[in-house]
Design a protein that fits this description.
The chain is of the alpha+beta class and about 600 residues long. The protein is built from 15 helices and 19 strands. The N and C termini lie far apart (about 105 Å).
């Protein structure tokens, strides 16, 4: 018998059994017959047994129209629609439990149909029972039908307990006892506290192991109060029925598992798409905060990120759940010099781990100053980033021993996707910064200053608002470079730039490096008089700055000169306004430097 013929055995058995059951006068039997016939015929078609017939059947006759089978396209469309509907909920334990509950309901219906089929064969039965594996090699009663009211619904067949326990211990096999003489209580699926009447005692019993791939998946059992109630042919029928139960039920469970895995993969794919659809920091962080509690039930979630400018510190950027708002925006130190905290350890070792909190004392999550809450029993910490740890997902639960390795795998997958998106955002921000900002001082560069000025002048023209343009440069900067060196000159440039930027209104005014030691300020909606007072305060603040040389022995002060031109009084177009501000700056230098001059 070749491999192809061996594969045909199961479909043949299903078809034969389907035809056999078809003649049983029962609605349930008709349903079960249709199931077996459909699966059996599907098996034939799946293996190509009817390919030739199919070709002959679908070949168009002369002059006839050729019709296309639309079922594959319809099925593909259904899958695409299903995939698009799968959201983050598919990652969560609640979704899995719901799907398994549906599967168990379906298995119950399948078992009921099988029991109906067996009942139709054995009218003299007392109890038909199906047992599924439980812990410690035992078997629990899953489904039954009985003429007796004394079946123990919570029955458990244990190894070495009674005649059935002996069979479990020795290895389950088809068993047939036509003259059973023990008491019902020794079967352990009847009430062991009842005294059975003589007519209630079991005198015949027959069982077959439920198998799939030669692995025992359960027990199918029939008993009767009549002696010699079953024959060898009955035993063969029961064995075939048990095998079909094994195939049908186990494949149902396998399909549910595959479906859950499929939904999980699709959900992850959809989440990744959302990360990349809107490449913005807040969008990625919000999505992480929203989906993680679906994926892993928890009572509190906090997400932290390393500070870009201070690598030895981090901050909580998103929070969810109980007492979470108290931790939002919390800054905490990292590294060897920081206090010992759970998150600091996870950061330093780039480590994913979970455990219960100490029952004896409070364990610091982030830092000593954090708001404390003693209502959590366990935690899970998972870092994320590309190549190195840039952030941390920290989950807490009020229950003990709730987190698993699979939770780490799931969060790591989410973290990797989010980390890649954040890395892309960082690269885009860097590229944008290079295009719009000066590399040394971090202020807007000359090119971007021109763009900002055009936009602001257009708005001022529309709303009839004033605008002041300020050109300024560091006094005697060439002498400073010659005396202390260019590295020190760079220190001064960066210090002055930082003071200029911090002295104007954020998101209203603008500061840019115009070239060399020269800078420019755009003071929006500010007339000449107000601009003069504002710039003079800036001049005084810069004059008060102290710069130390590299050896720390010399302290150096610098001053700046400022020229102001105001729209529309001193010019309505950018070139005119810049030219007049430059003339005012020249006058300031000519008058002795370290002063503010309005054109």
């Amino acid at each position: 018998m070749n491999r192809f013929h061996r594969k045909l055995i199961t479909p043949i058995v299903l078809i034969v059994l389907g035809v056999f059951i078809l003649f049983i006068d029962s609605i349930a039997a008709k349903i079960l017959s249709g199931l077996f016939l459909g699966v059996g015929l599907g098996g034939f078609l799946g293996m190509g047994a009817f390919k030739k017939i199919k070709r002959n059947f679908t070949a168009p006759s002369s002059g006839a129209k050729k019709y296309e089978n639309l079922l594959p396209q319809n099925a593909e469309a259904d899958v695409v629609q299903e995939a698009s509907a799968v959201q983050a909920e598919a990652l969560g334990a609640a979704h899995r439990k719901k799907q398994w509950r549906k599967t168990e309901d379906g298995v119950d219906k399948i078992l009921d149909m099988f029991i109906t089929s067996v009942e139709s064969r054995f009218s003299n039965f007392n109890t038909i029972a199906i047992f599924f594996p439980a812990k410690d090699e035992s078997y629990m009663l899953r489904k039954f039908r009985s003429k007796s009211e004394f079946v123990n619904k919570n029955a458990l067949l244990k190894p070495r307990h009674g005649i059935l326990g002996s069979l479990i211990t020795e290895g389950l096999r088809p068993f047939y006892e036509p003259n059973f003489t023990n008491q019902n209580a020794t079967l352990y699926y009847y009430d062991d506290g009842r005294r059975f009447k003589p007519e209630e005692l079991i005198h015949s019993i027959m069982l077959s192991p439920v198998k799939t791939d030669n692995v025992t998946r359960g027990i199918l059992l029939v008993d009767s109060t009549q002696a010699n109630a079953f024959s060898a042919e009955d035993q063969e029928f029961l064995t075939n029925a048990a095998n079909l139960i094994g195939i049908t039920v186990y494949e149902t469970y396998l399909n549910t598992g595959r479906s859950l895995d499929y939904h999980r993969l699709v959900a992850m794919n959809n989440i990744e798409k959302e990360f990349w659809t809107n490449l913005e920091f807040d969008a990625v962080m919000d999505k992480m905060r929203d989906i993680i509690p679906y994926a892993i039930p928890c009572d509190r979630l906090t997400i932290s990120l390393k500070n870009e400018n201070e690598k030895n510190s981090a901050a909580v950027v998103r929070a969810y759940g109980q007492n979470s708002e108290e931790l939002l925006n919390l800054n905490f130190p990292l590294g060897e010099n920081a206090e010992k905290s759970i998150v600091n350890m996870a950061y330093s070792k780039n480590l994913s781990f979970y455990r219960n909190f100490s029952a004896d004392q409070y364990e610091i999550r982030y830092c000593e100053e954090e708001p404390r809450c003693n209502e959590f029993a366990s935690f899970l910490a998972v870092p994320f980033g590309v190549d190195m740890c840039k952030g941390m997902m920290f989950i807490e639960s009020a229950k003990s021993d709730v987190f698993t390795d699979s939770n780490i795998d799931l969060l790591s997958h989410i973290g990797t996707s989010a980390g890649l998106a954040l890395e892309k955002i960082f690269i885009l921000h860097q590229a944008n910064a290079l295009a719009t900002h000066d590399g040394l001082t971090g202020l807007f560069n000359h090119r971007h200053f021109q763009i900002i000025l055009e936009k602001k002048l257009s708005a001022c023209t529309r709303y009839n608002d004033p605008l002041s343009l300020v050109l300024c440069d560091i006094d005697f900067f060439k002498k400073l470079n010659d005396t202390y060196g260019h590295p020190f000159g760079d220190v001064v440039l960066k210090g002055v730039a930082a003071k200029l930027e911090s002295s104007i209104r954020m998101d209203i005014d603008a500061a840019a490096r115009y070239g060399g030691e020269e800078f420019v300020l755009i003071l929006d909606k500010m007339n000449a008089e107000t601009a003069h007072d504002t710039v003079d305060r800036i001049r005084e603040a810069i004059e008060a700055m102290v710069f130390k040389t590299a050896d720390g022995r010399t302290e150096v002060n610098v001053t700046m000169s400022f020229g102001i031109a105001t729209f529309p009084k001193h010019g309505k177009k950018p070139p005119e306004l810049i030219n007049n501000a430059d003339k005012a700056l020249y006058d300031a230098k000519k008058a002795g430097r370290n002063r503010v001059v309005v054109y």
